[in-house]
């Protein structure tokens, strides 16, 4: 009967379907869903992970953009009356409103073409989120967990690490998918901090500073900050103005932001 719903993978939706049962089981074991969880899967696709998630958490909600997949998902999981499929773009979905007062657990083998904007969208709901488990391009997982001074360290590393504890879990090879992606993949766990370990006085300013300086990561901090602060006195900065942005820790970015906050705009 499943053949009735033959589906050709769509590139524009980043569709690479998981077919490796061992990997699927390993992912679900890492998530360890519970019946009482407020669990949301982004991009269920043909239901590879959904099937195991539903066995443990029958009230799962799935957010899927490709409307052609919805009838198949409804049919496949017709024995789970509490299974809720929302046909929507996850980039526009209000996870905060959906969560209500029940912290969300969000999971997904994410479409790689939108993974960075989607991560930033999800971060904006961090107060409503218990944890997140994602399959991403391995290069993105490397960026999420990168340390200062490394090649992968950048805007994504600083902003995600500011808000979350990041734990790279395990790699997934291309042959675990149909069609096989051209890149290596990996599973990552993100757990939003109950309170940021080094809170910035103005988080929007932190974001603005991080954005600007990483657009010019090879410049010195003094020069990279010029688009925002042309009159900066380098001697006053809490970190050496001759350093490159890519060498600053999250804590140092916070110190820099708190100093810039005193300058006004
Ligand atoms: N979970 C399935 C699996 O592991 O086999 C499919 C994963 S596939 C990499 C990504 C899924 O996300 C597809 O089902 C795709 O249609 C869906 N998708 C793409 N863009 C989306 C968006 N903006 N919002 C919600 N789902 C999206």
From TrEMBL:
It is an enzyme of class 2 (transferase). One of its GO terms (cellular component) is cytosol. GO terms for molecular function: 16S rRNA (adenine(1518)-N(6)/adenine(1519)-N(6))-dimethyltransferase activity; RNA binding. Its main location: cytoplasm. Belongs to the class I-like SAM-binding methyltransferase superfamily. rRNA adenine N(6)-methyltransferase family. RsmA subfamily. It holds the Pfam family RrnaAD. It comes from the Bacteria. It comes from Microbulbifer rhizosphaerae. The gene is rsmA. Its EC number is 2.1.1.182. S-adenosyl-L-methionine binds at residues 16, 18, 43, 64, 89, 109. CDD domains: AdoMet_MTases (cd02440). SMART domains: rADc. Keywords: Cytoplasm, Methyltransferase, RNA-binding, rRNA processing, S-adenosyl-L-methionine, Transferase. Residues 23-194 form the Ribosomal RNA adenine methylase transferase N-terminal domain. It is found in: Cytoplasm. It catalyses: adenosine(1518)/adenosine(1519) in 16S rRNA + 4 S-adenosyl-L-methionine = N(6)-dimethyladenosine(1518)/N(6)-dimethyladenosine(1519) in 16S rRNA + 4 S-adenosyl-L-homocysteine + 4 H(+). Specifically dimethylates two adjacent adenosines (A1518 and A1519) in the loop of a conserved hairpin near the 3'-end of 16S rRNA in the 30S particle. May play a critical role in biogenesis of 30S subunits. InterPro entries: KsgA/Erm, rRNA_Ade_diMease-like_C, rRNA_Ade_Mease_Trfase_CS, rRNA_Ade_methylase_Trfase_N, rRNA_adenine_dimethylase, SAM-dependent_MTases_sf. This is Ribosomal RNA small subunit methyltransferase A.
